[in-house]
Amino acid sequence: MAIDRARAALGQVFFQRCFYLFVGLLVLLMIALLLDPTPRARMLVNAINLLTDVAAVAAVGRSRWSFVIATALAIPAMFFQIRGIAEDDATRLLISWTLNAALYAVTIAYLLRYVFQRDVMTADKLWGAAAAYLMIGALWSLLYAIASYFEPGSFVIGGNATTPSFNDLLYFSITTLTSTGFGDIVPLLRRVRALCVFEQLTGALFLAILIARLAGVYPPSPPRQPGDETAAPAFIRRLRERTRPPPP
């Protein structure tokens, strides 16, 4: 079928699927945080976000249904984001934020299921865990943007209630996820504060569960028995064999 061929072709391009998703998210974060929110910079962030959507489809679309769901969310999200920025239409941007948030939520759920499978921990799974962590921060920035759309003035910056730009919300989300909290952007309304607390708990629990998962992959070595040379490290065993006197 055409869906299976498209999924296979995308998988060949993005061989290390989770790695490309992690790089796309990292570049998106850096560009969004370093550039001023000018129209040209917003278009650049939009272009990188489109590539992130494609990488998310590649990472999630390892089965037919997951590929269909991710594609069905990514294509309209791209469309409404381009139209919203080109026409400066807040309603289209809201639709794009909502679809992107749904795509990010689906991708995070898939990545967590993939990473925490009872199987060998591979490099792709580690990149998937790192991508999921960054995607949590991006997801919450979209949730903050949606909350600011319905309730303007939900944040305080420099002592003034205002509606931050998406770049500022992304910065605020990352500092909240990592429990840094510089205090330059403060949530004002209770519902937004609840979102902040939920993000902080999610970030802390994610790292704790991931460390526990990594610790469970490598069980402790069995206790050494007296005189058991096989329990010694390999280089020590080779040294003993070299220094051992030849038989008479």
In short, what is this structure?
The chain has 248 residues and is mainly alpha-helical.
Could you describe the 3D structure shown?
It is a single chain. The chain is mostly helical and 248 residues long. The protein has one domain. The chain contains nine helices and three strands. The chain has helices at 2-13, 17-34, 39-60, 64-87, 90-115, 123-150, 166-177, 190-217, 234-243, and strands at residues 155-157, 160-162, 185-187. It has a three-stranded antiparallel β-sheet with strand order 2-1-3. The longest helix is centred in the middle third of the chain and has 28 residues, at 123-150. The protein is globular, with a radius of gyration of 24 Å. The protein starts with a helix and ends in a 5-residue tail after the last helix. The relative contact order is 0.09. The model has no long low-confidence stretch (mean pLDDT 79).
Key terms:
three-stranded antiparallel β-sheet; 9 helices; mainly alpha; 248 residues
The number of domains: 1
Q: Tell me the total number of β-strands.
A: 3
Per DSSP, what share of the residues sits in E-state strands of 2 or more residues? under 5%
| Count, helices | 9
Relative helix content: over 70%
Order of helices and strands: HHHHHHEEHEHH
Q: Describe the global form.
A: globular
| Terminus-to-terminus distance | 73 Å
Class computed from helices, strands and strand pairing: mainly alpha
SSE topology sketch:
Layout: H1 2-13, H2 17-34, H3 39-60, H4 64-87, H5 90-115, H6 123-150, E1 155-157, E2 160-162, H7 166-177, E3 185-187, H8 190-217, H9 234-243
